[in-house]
Every structure is written in structure tokens, then in C-alpha cells.
């Protein structure tokens, strides 16, 4: 099937794709600069995120951690398993809801994340030092706007989009 004739929205689509690629590359670049500091403590970014979330929010269920850390249920189970094996977190099944498992820091986990978090925060600030204070605020505002935008109707696999008619 031949490609559709260029329409008036093609310019916006091209620009959106360019910005999307820049967003992904920037995120990967920042993460790549931060990962060595976490790896020196034998942590992944997701493991660090779990420890940090519990440090600042207190014990959380795995479901709550999923929302905070933005990972899949299967990966969350693996992450918590690995942290528990290292003695950094403990699990406790709810007495009222056997499906709910609360994850808490052990004393060893608390000591690690309390020591690591300030250094990691400084590393993040240094990594983003290319931006001025006002640029950081603007970027934060724009990313929040993008993240909170309502989900649009997306093109269906193998199709050209959803036709409501």
C-alpha cells in the first residue's frame, strides 16, 4: 500500500518524533552517567528506587512500589527478591489481606540508602548542571504537563488509526 500523501500535520509529527528521540536519548544519557555510582554499591537504578521510596515513604506494599518505581510486576518481584537476599529489605504478608506484601528496610538497608542517597542526589545535580535553575524549572513543568496529559486514541496495530465513524 502506498504511503499516504503528506498532510498539514506531517510537520508536527516530524517535530514530535525529533523531540521524542531527544527525550529518550537525554534520559538514557543521564541514567548512563548515574549507573556507575549505583553499580559500585551493587545496585541497579530500580533497586535504588525501591530503597529510596521506602526510605522516604516508609514501608510500602509491592503494589505501591510498582506505582512509585514504574516497573513491571514480574520485575518488582525480582528486585525485591534480590534486595531481600542481600538483607536490605524484609517482607511481611498482611494479616488482613494475604495478597498484600509490605516491604520495609532492614537496619542494613536503611544504613546503605541513608549513606548513598545524598551522594546520588549530588550526582544527579552534577549530571544536570548543563541546565540553569530556570531551565530546570521549565523542564520540570513541561515534563509534568506531558506526563499528566490525557491518553489519546492511538493508532491500532496494522492500521492507520482509530476511525470513530
Architecture overview:
The structure is a single chain. By secondary structure, this protein is mainly α. It has a domain at 42-142: Winged helix-like DNA-binding domain superfamily/Winged helix DNA-binding domain (Arc Repressor Mutant, subunit A), CATH 1.10.10. It is 61% helix and 7% strand. The protein is built from six helices and three strands. It has helices spanning 10-39, 45-57, 62-69, 73-85, 107-127, 133-148, and strands at 60-61, 89-93, 101-105. The chain has a three-stranded antiparallel sheet. The protein starts with 9 loop residues before the first helix and ends in a 17-residue tail after the last helix.
CATH topology of the domain at 42-142: Arc Repressor Mutant, subunit A
CATH structural class of the domain at 42-142: Mainly Alpha
Multimeric state: single chain
- What is the CATH architecture term of the domain at 42-142? Orthogonal Bundle
Principal-axes shape call: globular
The value of Rg in angstroms is 21 Å
Mean pLDDT: 90
* Residue share in helix: 55-70%
Q: Tell me the span between the first and last alpha carbons.
A: 22 Å
The DSSP helix count reads: 6
**What's the number of extended β-strand segments?**
3
What sequence of helices (H) and strands (E) makes up the elements?
HHEHHEEHH
Task: Give me the side-by-side strand order of the main sheet.
Answer: 1-3-2
Structural class: mainly alpha
CATH superfamily grouping of the domain at 42-142? Winged helix-like DNA-binding domain superfamily/Winged helix DNA-binding domain
Strand percentage lies at 5-15%
Main beta sheet: 3 strands, antiparallel
Extract low-pLDDT stretches.
Answer: none
